[in-house]
């Protein structure tokens, strides 16, 4: 009898991705979708897509998706989360989006401890617009706008988003992972899941930075791009957990939504109940 080994998660629509070969956006989408399913959040989640190659995330995730203007995803997510406390909200943002035009929004959402989950795709470049320098572009990295390599004397130093946000009192969970090898997938998925679980338990703001590839604009093969993350990006951006109030079990944020009941009149999902159900689901794997 045939055994199913590989299934599309329910949280992903049955359509092909438009991403380039070797681009890690697709892997990250799948891992987020698997976690939404396993935490039983899929039917109750609203995503906020940003501007960049993942702008069409609304074509891929099987949940409601709002497309926010450049950099504004944390502000849009704040509005949705406060207006609909019976829903979970995550943003999916590139480094150009989150760390350039959206710097103010991410810092203020983090310092407010907004109960949202942010997936920050750091591929060290503006992918969609043809490979211009991003705030996270490495020193010496050649891009369309730094043809002789990024010179900090001219273009400033790369921004370390996790380290920056970890100085604030608001965040409940901040971690950086690298989508640069098959053996990293379990760790990446576990970290994504923890960030979503943070919201499930209403602990407050969670962000996962994912060191990612852009083989097209880096002008590398997919294998070379993976190696470049391992050999260069990881040096500038060490992976690890920077804030974790979930494990320390302190700093529990109140939901900042109006009252503790959703506008729809539906009761809030019981976090403990959902976590218990999710644990059962995960054990079944
Ligand atoms: C206000 C505004 N400025 C500039 C742009 C052009 N723009 C679209 S995507 C993008 C860069 C996106 O890069 P990133 O967020 O790193 O995403 P990636 O494509 O690398 O995944 C820019 C500058 C825009 N759409 N809106
Ligand atoms: S341009 Fe870069 S980030 Fe965009 S889909 Fe292609 S590889 Fe991915
Ligand atoms: Mg980018």
How does this model look, in words?
With 285 residues, the chain is α/β, with parallel strands linked by helices. It has one domain (25-283): 3-Layer(aba) Sandwich (Rossmann fold), CATH 3.40.50.970. Helices cover 36% and strands 14% of the residues. It contains eleven helices and seven strands. It has helices spanning 25-38, 73-83, 95-101, 103-111, 152-155, 161-165, 185-200, 215-218, 222-236, 245-248, 271-283, and strands at 45-49, 64-67, 88-94, 117-122, 173-178, 206-211, 240-244. The protein has a seven-stranded mixed β-sheet with strand order 2-1-3-4-6-5-7, with helices on both faces. Helix 1 crosses helix 7 and helix 3 crosses helix 4. The two termini are 19 Å apart. The relative contact order is 0.15. Residues 249-271 and 277-285 have low confidence and may be disordered.
